[in-house]
Write a structure and sequence with these properties.
- By secondary structure, the chain is an alpha+beta fold.
- It folds into 2 domains: 147 residues, no CATH class; 78 residues, 2-Layer Sandwich (Alpha-Beta Plaits).
- Helix content is 58%, strand content 14%.
- It has 8 helices and 6 strands, in the order H-H-H-H-E-E-H-H-E-H-E-E-H-E.
- A hairpin with a 5-residue loop joins strand 1 and strand 2.
- The longest helix has 28 residues.
- The mean pLDDT is 85.
C-alpha cells in the first residue's frame, strides 16, 4: 500500500488485499476499478451521453493502474503528486465532452464531472482505499439516477425560465413580447439564434421571470403554444 494508513475495508479483507505488489491484490484492484467504472459508464450510456461504458471503464482502470505502478516503483509520498497529475489529465479529457448547442445550451458538464469523479474512484482503488471507492460509487450512482428527477421538480417550481421559441417571422417577436408583458411576465433577455438564418423561421432564446403571475415553466410553455404565430416552443 502507498500510504501508511490502512483502509478499514482493506484491513477487514486481510493483508493480501493491500499488498503493494501482491498478485491477488493487483487482480482485486483491477477488477474493482473495471466494474465500478463500467457501471458508472453504463448509466451514462443508457442516457446517450458522449462518454459511455468504455470511456468510464478505461478512465477508472487507468487511474488505478497508475497508482499501483507508482506504489510498486516507489514506497513514498510521490503518489500524492501522481494523483494530482492524473486528475488534471482527466480534467482535460472531460473538457472535450462539454459543448454548446445551437440553442445556447451548455451540454456535457455532468458527463465531465462524472468522468472526473470516476478517475478519483480509480485512484482510491489503486491506493487500496476500498471504503472510499465503494461509498463514493454508491453516492455517484444515486446522484446520476435520482437527481435528474429532483431537478425536474425544481425547474417546474422556479420563476426564472429560459425559453427556446420559433416564430413565423421577425415582426412576431414584438407581438410575443407584448403578449407576455400584458400577462405579467418580465422579459430578462432576448437572443436571436443566427443558426436558423435562411430557414424561414425567426428563432430566439428568451429569459423570462414569471413574477407574480402564478405560472410556472410548464404553464408558460403551454400558454405560448396557443399563440398562432409561434411555430415551436420549449423550455431549455
Amino acid at each position: 500500500m502507498i500510504f501508511d494508513t490502512i483502509d478499514p475495508l482493506a484491513k477487514a479483507l486481510g493483508e493480501w488485499s493491500y499488498e503493494t505488489a501482491g498478485i491477488y491484490s493487483i487482480i482485486l484492484r483491477i477488477l474493482l476499478a473495471t466494474i465500478l467504472g463500467g457501471l458508472i459508464g453504463l448509466e451514462r450510456s443508457f442516457r446517450r451521453h458522449p462518454a459511455g461504458f468504455r470511456t468510464y471503464t478505461l478512465v477508472s482502470l487507468g487511474s488505478a493502474m497508475c497508482m499501483m505502478i507508482n506504489g510498486i516503483l516507489s514506497e513514498s509520498s510521490d503518489g500524492v503528486r501522481l494523483a494530482a497529475g492524473i486528475i488534471t489529465g482527466v480534467g482535460f479529457l472531460g473538457a472535450g465532452v462539454i459543448y454548446v448547442t445551437t440553442r445556447s445550451q451548455v451540454r456535457g458538464i455532468t458527463t465531465a464531472a462524472s468522468l472526473w469523479v470516476t478517475c478519483a474512484t480509480g485512484i482510491a482503488i489503486g491506493s487500496s482505499c476500498y471504503s472510499i471507492a465503494l461509498i463514493s460509487f454508491v453516492v455517484v450512482i444515486l446522484t446520476l439516477t435520482i437527481m435528474p428527477y429532483v431537478e425536474v421538480l425544481v425547474d417546474n417550481k422556479t420563476k426564472e425560465v429560459d425559453i427556446h421559441v420559433e416564430l413565423q417571422s421577425r415582426p412576431d417577436l414584438k407581438t410575443l413580447i407584448t403578449f407576455l408583458r400584458d400577462n405579467g411576465f418580465m422579459i430578462r433577455n432576448v437572443n436571436y439564434d443566427s443558426a436558423y438564418a435562411g430557414t424561414g423561421l425567426s428563432v430566439y432564446s428568451l429569459s423570462i421571470n414569471c413574477g407574480k403571475t402564478g405560472y410556472r415553466m410548464k404553464e408558460l410553455v403551454e400558454l405560448m403554444k396557443k399563440e398562432p404565430y409561434v411555430s415551436y416552443v420549449e423550455a431549455i
